[in-house]
Amino acid sequence: MLTDEMLLDSYHMAVELKLEREFITLLLAEIHKRNLDTNSGSILH
């Protein structure tokens, strides 16, 4: 299990590296599940 900080770092890194959209979507779903704020304008919709 990832800590909240590790999850957010992973999300930001995945967006920066332009990894698979499905992977980023999974990370974002977990971020929302934990009610975390990405503090980023790069959220995928």
Break the fold down into its secondary structure elements and pairings.
Elements: H1 4-16, H2 21-33
| Gyration radius over CA | 9 Å
CATH hierarchy class name of the domain at 4-34: Mainly Alpha
Largest sheet: none
- CATH second-level architecture of the domain at 4-34: Orthogonal Bundle
What level of helicity do the residues show? 55-70%
Structural class: mainly alpha
Order of SSEs: HH
Low-confidence stretches: none
Strand content: under 5%
InterPro entries: Sda, Sda_sf
Protein name: Sporulation inhibitor sda
Organism: Paenibacillus ihbetae
Name the features:
45 residues; mainly alpha; Helix Hairpins; 0% strand
Task: Give a short overview.
The protein has 45 residues and is mostly helical.
Task: Please provide a written account of the structure.
With 45 residues, this protein is mainly alpha-helical. The protein has a domain at 4-34: Helix Hairpins. It is built from two helices and no strands. The protein has helices at residues 4-16, 21-33. Helix 1 packs antiparallel against helix 2. It is globular and about 25 Å long. It starts with a helix and ends in a 12-residue tail after the last helix. The model has no long low-confidence stretch (mean pLDDT 88). InterPro entries: Sda, Sda_sf. This is Sporulation inhibitor sda.
